């Protein structure tokens, strides 16, 4: 901190001091250039007002089934009873989502084990005339090309979970029966791509693969040419609250993520986790929430339970009856203010208007409260900000943007996590 302001932070780049303001997201050469306290208060108040705005349900997430064919060591759903949603539950969820615009993620378990439910979603969403962007996650099971074609005709974005070449992938994501789950993921990728879907790859970083992630990441880009990449180093605690046994630890997380991001910038590859941080930093537009669960996400699981956070709902926490619209409304209202700008402990953090607060489920398990934080992730956010500041002082903020801009064909980020920004807009 400098000049007494809680929002001004000093960084040293190549021996020179620079001052970063956590509300304006500007870099100053001297503390005298920074806003006066009255201006800071006005900005903070406006961010709090923005964070509390009701944008309706901007993202739906349907756990069509909690069944799966894999037994991934890092899955938070270990021990959860398998079940399927019903067509009536899907109809009720779509009704709550209204006319949109909204994103809807078909999730699980392995959602493609229930193609009939996926078709039901497509047909109902189509006949309702609602403005809904569909996306679906899969680890890879055999998929009928005609279903892939239906999804392509809806403009569906498919996310295939793949951690690297076969040996890396198979060791983290073994099939319950048999070993070669990579083949299934590879086949699914091509079925969807050939049908005309946009297809991204989501990589999970664990203590097992952290040393090879960068080369695995390049291997996946070169072998699949995906429409975007996901890179997730933060594993959710297992149902019941046990720390995830495969969580990577230490400075290797930052080094790995940064080296993958540098590769992505050079190759013009969109990485959601990069875009989430770089876009607000480059545009100087605050990112007040990391996840639409903070008041704009409707999660549904088999059995007619709804919630606003995936993991909490699946693990039996903060779930309500899907039929009770008042309870759903109250739940979304209770979560709406969950932004660092409303957390007293975050006010002096340089990442205040950039980190979005991270995952509320993880924060709850780390700190015991919904308004808490996960300390190792906070350290990562601050170090990542330092990296962005260093790079922008040396080469300009634009040097953080992937070659060709942020690809508009990539998976859009839900409204509510990019407050103040348009969706899918090139920088
Ligand atoms: S708060 Fe965390 S677990 Fe919940 S939906 Fe968001 S990212 Fe997922
Ligand atoms: S990084 Fe952590 S401490 Fe900093 S604003 Fe985000 S949640 Fe708060």
Describe what you observe in this structure.
By secondary structure, the protein is α/β, with parallel strands linked by helices. The chain folds into two domains: 1-34; 59-332, TIM Barrel (Alpha-Beta Barrel). 37% of the residues lie in helices and 15% in strands. The strands form two sheets. It has a nine-stranded mixed beta sheet with strand order 9-8-7-6-5-4-10-11-12. A three-stranded antiparallel beta sheet has the order 1-2-3, with helices on one face. It starts with 7 loop residues before the first strand and ends in a 32-residue tail after the last helix. The protein binds iron/sulfur cluster (SF4) (2 copies). One iron/sulfur cluster binds at residues 340, 343, 346, 349, 351-352, 355, 357-358, 373, 378, 381.
Give the N-terminus to C-terminus distance in angstroms.
Answer: 30 Å
Strand content: 5-15%
Q: How does the overall form come out from the CA principal axes?
A: globular
State the strand order across the main sheet.
9-8-7-6-5-4-10-11-12
Feature tags:
about 425 residues, nine-stranded mixed β-sheet, alpha/beta, TIM Barrel, about 15% strand, three-stranded antiparallel β-sheet, about 35% helix, binds iron/sulfur cluster
Describe the secondary-structure layout.
Elements: E1 8-13, E2 16-21, E3 27-28, H1 37-51, E4 59-65, H2 87-97, E5 102-108, H3 115-128, E6 132-138, H4 145-153, E7 157-161, H5 166-172, H6 181-195, E8 198-204, H7 213-224, E9 228-232, H8 252-267, H9 272-283, E10 297-301, E11 305-307, H10 310-314, E12 320-321, H11 325-336, H12 360-367, H13 375-395
Bound molecules: iron/sulfur cluster (SF4) (2 copies).
The site of one iron/sulfur cluster (SF4) has 12 residues, from helix 13.
